[in-house]
Amino acid sequence: MKKQTIDSKPAGPKPWYDPRVRSLFFQVVAIAAVFWAGWTLVENTLSNMESRGISTGFGFLEETAGFGIIMSLVPYDATMSYGRTFWVGLTNTLLVSAMGIIAATLLGFIIGVARLSSNWLVAKVSLFYIEVIRNIPLLLQIFFWYFAVLGALPSPRQSIEMGGTMFLNNRGLYVPEPLTQDGFGLVWGAVLAAIAAVVGIRIWAKRRQLATGQIFPTFKVGVAILVLVPLLAYFVAGSPLEWDVPALKGFNFGGGITIIPELAALWLALSLYTASFIAEIVRSGILSVSKGQTEASKALGLPNGLTLRLVVIPQAMRVIIPPLTSQYLNLAKNSSLATAIGYPDLVAVFMGTTLNQTGQAVEVVAITMAVYLTISLSISLFMNIYNRAVAIKER
Amino acid sequence: MTESTMKPPKKALTPVKWMREHLFSTWYNALLTVVVGYLVVTSVGPILNWALFDANFLGADASDCSGAGACWLFIDQRLNFFIYGFYPDELQWRVDLMFLLLAVAFVPQFIERFPARKWFGIFGMTGLPVIGYFLIPGGLFGLEEVESTKWGGLMLTLILAYIGILASLPIGVLLALGRRSEMPIIRGLSVVFIEVWRAVPLITVLFMASVMLPLFLPDGMNFEKLMRALIGITLWQSAYMAEVIRGGLQAIPRGQYEAADALGLGYWRKMGLVVLPQALKLVIPGIVNTFISLFKDTTLVLIIGLFDVLGTVQSTVTDPAWQNVAVEGYVFVAFCFWVFCFGISRYSQNLERKLDTGHKT
Hints:
Chain A is of the alpha+beta class and 395 residues long. Chain A has helices spanning 19-52, 82-115, 120-133, 138-149, 184-212, 218-236, 261-288, 291-299, 304-334, 346-358, 361-390, and strands at 160-162, 166-169, 172-175, 177-180, 241-244, 247-249, 252-254, 257-259.
C-alpha cells in the first residue's frame, strides 16, 4: 500500500499515462532489443566461426585468387588477389547497369510515346509489348535470351557476318576496335573546343534573346559545330585512327572487341524488361500535362516543336523523374541476376567464387551489400538533384 | 433526358473512314503503319506456324516431335513435375485440394456480384494458410509427412508468394507506422531497416539467408533451406510494403488524426480504427503491384537451389532425352506467370477505378 502524501498536488496523470514517459519507455525498450539482438548475433557468429575454423578480418583480400574470369574491364589474371576480383566484379556490374540504363531509357521513351500515338497500329503494338514483357519474370527473360536465342547461334566457323567487320556466333559478338594513333590528341582537343564554343553560343543566344527577343537557332548551330570541328581536326591530323578488325584464327576469333553472350543476354533482358516499365511511366507523365497547356501555348503562337520542348516535356518530367529513379535502382539491383547465367558481375565473382574459396562469408556479404547500398544511394542522390532542378519553383 | 444533355449522334464509321482516321491520318502515320504492319505480318505468320500449325501435341517421347514446330508434348509429358516438383504422386491430391481452395477463395473476388465474396477473401487470408500448414507438409492427423526438399514447381512458387505476401503485410504496416512515429529512435530504426533492405538486391538477401543465417543462429538451431529463403523474402518484401503503406498514411488528412485524438482514442485505436483502414484502402493498388513483383521475384530461389516452376523447367530443358525444347519450356513458364500477373494487374486497375472517389480531374 502506498502512503498518503501530505502535500496534495492536483492528482496529475499516472506516469504510465504520460505520453512522454511512455515514448521514452518504448524507445529504451527498442534500443535494448536491438542491442540484445545485435550482441546475440555477433556472439553466435563468432562462436560458430571459431568452431568451423573461419578466420575474421579483411586480410583475405591480399591473397592470390587463382581463378579465371571470362571478362574483365581492368587487367586481371588468376595470379592476382581477391581484392582485384572485387574490382573486376564491380566494374562489370557498373558496365552492364550503365548500358542497361541508357538502352532502357531510350527504348522506354520511344515505346511510351508510341503508346499514345494517334496511329492505332503503333499504339496497339506498344501496348502488346508492355503487357507481355512486364508480366514475365526477368530471370526467365534472361534465360530465354541466353539459352534459347544466343545459345542457338552457329559456331565460330559458321558465324553470321555483318559487312565483313562484325561477326556473331555462339561465343559472342565481335566488333572492330578503334585504335588511336599519334596525333589523335588534336581531335580530343577539337571536341573540347567545340563543347566550349557551344556553351558560349548558348549563353550569348540567351542574353541576346532577353535583350532583343530574337531567337537564335542554338540547337542546329550547336550540332553543326559539334560534328564539323572534330571532323575537320581529324582530317587535318591525317586520319589518326585505325580499326582492329576481328578475324577467324584457328577455332576462334582474334582482335577487335568481344561482347560475350552473357553480357549481351543480360543487357538485352534488363533493357527490354525495364523499358516496359519506363514506357508506362513516360505515358503517365505525358498524360498528366493537361490539354489546356498545349492549347495555351498554341494560342501564344508557339510552333509544335517549341510547345513540346518548353511546355509539355518540362511538366511531364516532374511526374516522370521520381518513378524513373526507382526503375534505375531496380535495374542496377537486377543486374545481380547475372550470376544465374555466369556473367561475372559483383555477386557472381565476389559473393560467389570468392566467398566459396575463402569462406569469409561475413566480410564478403558485408562488402557486397555496402557496394549496392552505395550504388543505390548515388543514383537516388543524382536523380534527386536533377529532380530539384525540374521541380515546380513556388514562391 | 432533355435535348441539351443528349450526346451527339455517333458518327457512322465505315472501315475506310476508320482506317483513314486511325492509320493514315498524315503521311508519316501512313509510313509508320506500312512499316509496323509489315513487321507484324512477317513475324506473326512464322510464330503461328511454329506454335500451332507445325507443332506436335500428341505422342509419348522426343521421337514423336517432327522438329518443324513447337514440341508441346514435352510440356504435356513433364507437366506433373512442373506443377508438383518431387511431391509423391499418390499424395498430390493434397496439393490439388489447396489449388481448389485457393480458387474458391479468390475467383469470387473477380466477380462483381458474387454473394458474400468478402468472406471468401477473409478465408483466403486466414483459414487457407492454416489448412495449408497442416495439409502440405503433413506429419499430423495421420497424413504422411512430405519434406520440404520434395516440394517444387508451380506449387512451390505459389507457396513462396503466398506466405511472402501474407507475412510481409503486417511487418510492413508496423514499419510504416514506425517510420511516421514521433519517437526519434523508433523512427530512425525503421528508416534504417527499410532503406537498407530496399537498397540491396534480392539475390544477395537470398545468398545471405542460405550462407549466413546458419552462422547467426546458436548451435543446434537450424532452419531448412526453404524456411531460410522465406525469411529472407519476407524481410526484403516488408521493406517495400512499408513504403507503399507509408504513402497511404501520408495521404490521410491531418484532420482525421486530430479527430481521433479529440475522441480520446489512444495510439493503437487511433491507427487501427481511423487511420489504417483509410490508408490501406487508398494503397490497395500499390499492395497488389508489390504482390505482382514478389510473385515474379520468387523465381530467384532457383539460384540457391530450390526448384520453383522456372527451376523445374530449367532442369528439364537440359535433359538429353529431349533436344531443343528450351523455347517451349520458357514459353510455358512465361505463360503461367503472364496469366497470373496480367490477371492480378487487371483486377488491381479495376479496383482502382472502383475505389476512385473522384478527386482527380
